[in-house]
Design goal:
This protein is α/β, with parallel strands linked by helices. The protein has 2 domains: 167 residues, HUPs (Rossmann fold, 3-Layer(aba) Sandwich); 118 residues, Rossmann fold, CATH 3.40.50.1220. 26% of the residues lie in helices and 25% in strands. It contains 8 helices and 15 strands. Helix 3 packs across helix 4. The relative contact order is 0.12.
Amino acid sequence: MSILILAEHDNDSLNAATLAVVTAAKKIGGAIDLLVAGSRCGAVAEQAAKIDGISKVLMADNDAYGHQLAENVGLLVAELGKNYSHVLAAATTTGKNVVPRIAALLDVDQISDILSVESADTFTRPIYAGNAIATVQSSAAIKVITVRTTAFDKTAESGGSATATVEPVSAVHDAGLSAFVGEELAESDRPELAAAGIVVSGGRGMGNGENFNILYKLADKLGAAVGASRAAVDAGFVPNDMQVGQTGKIVAPELYVAVGISGAIQHLAGMKESKIIVAINKDEDAPIFQVADYGLVADLFEAVPALIDKV
């Protein structure tokens, strides 16, 4: 068996989510190759070559892959993937955009969002918004998989003195279906939401976007990232890049503080793997208390300022 992993990066550094995918690949077994597709991404390839357990790094360095357009990268991975038994990527926004295209081009079923590896062809994945775990087995010749990175520990960024070889890939694919126009990156001194060790999230109970300033103050005291429920995002309180849940970001921090969040199953699916969950809600029957390790039935506009004073 041999495994190809699509690395996630920004052309300067490797996304830590890729390290969790490597751990999943190790559990499958076999040689692991890592594909770095980008533009002027040599530094990323060098970083990837040091990862523990990587046999070879394939570097496709071309402007066609500079912004990881799914239409172009999908064609590249599908071409290379024919020589592997498994093709893996992180179940992130980027991975979810590219991997379905790869599966379609290879004419195989996709196995999405795996939580564990039972064997080389058998995996577990969440269904019904995480309320049940399905064990799935695939007979496809090439298994195309996305990995829920919060379910796997991150492998070591360095394997000691051993360094994988870096091989250039000359194949260039430009589907001509899309073009990069621009991007606006949100700048913040707080940790990135998906990777933060502490997350403070607000829901519809916050009342409006201005009231999120209370959570920002608490987050700054705790060194935390700030998230939100879909209800808060849909209400326009905060931008959708703060959304935690089944259709938002999946987080599993050491501490998750849910403020004014009722606990719809779609939200729970995105945060219930957190190590410690603290819920603050004035409704004692709110579903969030069913998964919380600590619950406080109180008015958040009284409880959160009091908590800030104590931190």
